[in-house]
Amino acid sequence: MVPLAVLLKRELTNEKIERPDILHGQASQSKKGEDFTLLKTECQRILGDGITTFSVFALFDGHNGSAAAIYTKENLLNNVLSAVPSDLSRDEWLAALPRALVAGFVKTDKDFQEKAQSSGTTVTFVIIDGWVVTVASVGDSRCFLESAEGSIYSLSADHRLEANAEERERITASGGEVGRMNIVGGAEIGPLRCWPGGLCLSRSIGDMDIGEFIVPVPYVKQVKMSNAGGRLVIASDGVWDALSPERVLSCCRGLPAEIAAKQIVDEALKGKGLRDDTTCIVTDLLPPEKIHPMPPPKKLGKGKFKGMFRRKSSESSSHSDKEYCEVDLVEEIYEEGSAMLAERLDSQYPLRSMFKLFACAVCQVVIKQGEGISLHAGSSRHGRTRPWDGPFLCKSCQMKKDAMEGKRPSADGASRHRSGSDDALPSAAS
């Protein structure tokens, strides 16, 4: 039964949301058995209330074993939802989601590390509520959106060290080392890796044997699609290493989601065969009662790749669905990729007032007054923060934050050599 307070709030805010019809399919070819997916189309913000449904599509590309990918698949969604305050309207829930995703990723990583297993995983985690799509990602699995008109948008970040100078600087500043593998004679080969350990990524969940500077803090992007619809493709690096986003989306246009996913995987394997686990999820968002494959765009040929979005106007303070004048508009609501928890878990009013003050901003444990540690403790941003306002962390989450920022040694500080015979090198350093 829906609580009366929720019904009254919905009536006051006129929460009538047009929702797209969602069709999805997935395909995979396994080499190591370390890719896992999560597909849930009937999640509810309020249990028992069918109007509050949302969908989750996620891909977990494990390396050095499957333990981290399996654990994250089983626990991440619950950890994210636990970090969202209760009794929120849909607009408030969507506004709170980016912070909750950061908290959920960090808590999942922290809890998994307590199991003392050395595997890790990339995560691309997509939440769809109405026409609002929120994507959180760590690693090099990617998510791209093609609008109904054929424009292509990136909704995730590439956290490979080779592709990200800012992440390389962050890791070295936190005490890590970035370089290529050395072979006999001193020559360097292969992609840039983080040492100790030899991981090619700067962000993941797990990887406790590499160092705490491999952080689980996700890049988050939230966009509002037009009601013309579009297609999402979520895939592991086995796809993106073989095909460009334009090629991925052009090879499956006009095909139903299930067939499209298989077509993308087959296309990725044409060149060099199956060298890594290769997994793809295709999700179509269609106008209601328009159940058929995404049609080819009006302008055939290569899709137009767009890194920039129309940003939300200052007059628009609501996430609620509304009619657009533009036929094919993708509106950016939120984007943030900082690895610093103090920046990601802080928020301005009125968003800050939605979250419990005396609860750890990561693990949600209740903190007794006077025992919480300000998220801004030790911050150099004097005059711009008020530590007594919070957010606060419990002691164990503060230790986790300090380790991620290089303020204390990680759990495994042992040095490893950058040699070609290094047995610690992850088997799928992504």
From TrEMBL:
Pfam families: PP2C. PANTHER family: PROTEIN PHOSPHATASE. It catalyses: O-phospho-L-threonyl-[protein] + H2O = L-threonyl-[protein] + phosphate; O-phospho-L-seryl-[protein] + H2O = L-seryl-[protein] + phosphate. It comes from the Eukaryota. Its cofactor is Mn(2+); Mg(2+). It is an enzyme of class 3 (hydrolase). This is protein-serine/threonine phosphatase. It comes from Amborella trichopoda. One of its GO terms (molecular function) is protein serine/threonine phosphatase activity. Residues 400-430 are annotated as: Disordered. Residues 23-285 form the PPM-type phosphatase domain. PROSITE patterns: PPM_2, ZINC_FINGER_C2H2_1.
